[in-house]
Amino acid sequence: MEKRGKWGSKFGFILAASGSAIGLGNIWRFPYTAGENGGGLFVMLYLIAIVCIALPVLIAAVSLGRHTGKNPVGAFESIKPGSNWKLVGYLGVGTGVMILSFYAVIAGWTVGYFFKAVTGQLNNITNKTAPETFSNFISDSYLQTGLIIVFILLTIFIVSKGVSSGIEVFSKVMMPILFVILIVLLIRSLTLKNAAEGLKYYLEPDTSKMSFKIAIAALGQAFFSLSLGMGTMITYGSYLKKKEDLLSSSLWIAFFDTSIAFLAGLIIFPAIFSQNMDPAGGPGLVFQVLPVIFAKMPGGYVFGSLFFALLMIAALTSSISMLEVPVSFAIDEKKFSRKKASILIGGIALIFAIPSALSDNFLGIMNYVWGNLSLSIGALFIAIFVAYIWKSENALIELAEGSNLLEYPDAGERFFSYKKNRKMVLWKITLKYIVPVFILVILIGIVFLGIEF
Ligand code: TRP
Known about the structure:
- It is built from 19 helices and no strands.
- The protein has helices at residues 10-21, 24-36, 40-68, 72-79, 86-118, 130-138, 141-160, 163-190, 195-203, 212-225, 232-238, 246-274, 285-296, 300-334, 338-358, 360-389, 392-400, 411-419, 422-448.
């Protein structure tokens, strides 16, 4: 039987989990969803959703994972043996494969645009030619299929290397580089003409646009962005050592993830307005707007190539976290070797990826079923399980483990000290009484009103 991996350090865990959280969701999905949903108002609701709803679920998932030291199926089973709760874990394992399959399509776009950038094909692109370049690109079926194969193979390769030498090392090197390049782009973007107009659209909440749909989209985006609802953070938490501080780690992850999404918006909206492009331009937004900016800026060839390389890498640190969930399940519960599990499950994801690459409609349905519905159901059950079945009191003891609240050797004192901790009490109340209500609202929106995000 294979030995279970562990993160090398708290910092390694924070970067790997941030690597999972930070991905296409931040740099591709967040800006175009914000653009389609009225800009500033969406951004404001998103920030509220992260802090009040998604962060508490993140903390719940990580503590459940570390406490049990298991994949999602094993985690539910070890707390409520013989019950149906493990079905939530199975749903997560299946959702991981399915989300990977359509995530790989968009990730394939980043691979394709990286090659376009490096080979100079984007050097002369303008706001007139960019949309056509993009639509020709996505309608080339052979190319699209090739790109998802490349991307899924990369994902399999890293996951098969294991937790600390694959996922952790890769994330540790790449995430900081991504941050630096985004800062360079930010400076460029803020100095473009009409930048102020873009900032206004992005930052000024126009409350008259308020609607149920925008609120649902913002909540959904918050969950997706923090990789919640399918056990990714349970699995990543299971590789965390007992001596590390869960609460502060979770806060850092949410902070990094939100900052990168916010930064992406700060880059993209000024760029859109400087080129007179449409902020509600849909999923092609980032691929159409940024190349135009690169083509016009000094050193644009280098920055463009670097940007798409890093976007691809951000997608990879997320896709490996999707594959890691079913892989950890197959290793823990089915005694597969890591290599065999990665190849087999990655292969299944590839089979489902091909129809998504070839048909917009198929991809839309996959996103609706797995990306919206299944993730929301998963998040709801994870929250309810931790709050009411495992019980938040027990989760609090796990949270206190590794924090400075555990200086007290005797358990009675330990209990007392976390009970006094304001953040922990706030977390408990939110998870029990606020989070489930809001996730139910999302579900109602998805199921009964057909809202998609
Ligand atoms: N959060 C990632 C992003 O923003 C995507 C992701 C990785 C994800 N693992 C997940 C989304 C698990 C939902 C569930 O791109």
